[in-house]
Amino acid sequence: MRRLLVTSAILIGLMGCAGSSSSSPQNSDGVATLTGTQIASQNCVSGTVVADRAVNIVTTVAPITSIVSSIVGDTGTVITGLVPEGTNSHTFEPPPSAASVLEGADVVFINGLVLEEPTKNLAEANLRNGAVVCELATAVLPESDWIFDFSFPKSGGKPNPHLWTNPPMAIDYATVILDTLTHIDPANADAYKTNHEAFVAQIRSLDDATKVATATLPIESRKLVTYHDAYAYFARQYGWQVVGAIQPASFEEPTAKDVVALIRQVRSESVRAIFGSEVFPSPILEQIGKETGVTYVDVLRDDDLPGEPGSPEHSYAELMRFNFVTMVESLGGDATALNSLELANVPDKAKYPQ
Question: pTM (2 decimals)?
Answer without folding.
Answer: 0.88
